[in-house]
Amino acid sequence: METTGTVRRRTAERKHDTLARLAAERDVWVSTAHPEHGPHQVPLWFLWDGRAVWMCTNAASATARNVRAEPRVRLALPHTFDVALLQGEAECFPDREVPEGAADAFTGKFGWDPRGEAGSFLYVRVVPRTVRAWRGEHELRGRVIMRDGTWLE
Fold first, then answer.
1. C-beta atoms surrounding 123 within 10 Å
2. pTM to 2 decimals?
3. In this protein, which residues make up the domain named Pyridoxamine 5'-phosphate oxidase N-terminal (predicted)?
């Protein structure tokens, strides 16, 4: 990450930087909520396939329980000086029903295949509907770079 001082990036540059981070980074903070149990936040490995974020978690985890009850999630890339927040709805795939291409790409990135584990895992796919990106207070204006699933220019 390069800092830009007080020079505010244009939307196209924020989009480019965010897409580069989605392709390169390994971890994302996943925020979920359950009507009875409240909010939950956890870091998970993720894969960006060019359109959606793919994650995998134990099928009995709080994250899995929450997204089944309330699919709306917020994802955050882990850097407070280069904020990238994605919002969308989670779509769940049991490890035996996940699209093979997504599971193979996840395995290729991390060297771990949950489908071969003894326990049961859940793949979670999130297609962003809203993306916000900013570096510092001077970039708060114009931080929305995707709205209703469409990248802004």
1. 23
2. 0.94
3. 20-134
In terms of Cα–Cα distance, which of 68, 66, 67, 88 is closest to 132? Answer: 88
- Which domains, and CATH codes, for the chain? 11-151 (2.30.110.10)
Condensed to tens digits (0 to 9), the pLDDT of residues 10-68 reads 999 999 999 999 999 999 999 999 989 999 999 999 999 999 999 999 999 999 999 99
Helix-, strand-, coil-residue percentages of the chain, each rounded to 5: 25, 40, 35
Q: Are 54 and 105 in contact (CB under 8 A)?
A: yes
Dihedral, CA of residue 46, residue 58, residue 146 and residue 25, to nearest 10: -20
For residue 124, give both structure tokens: 């979670």
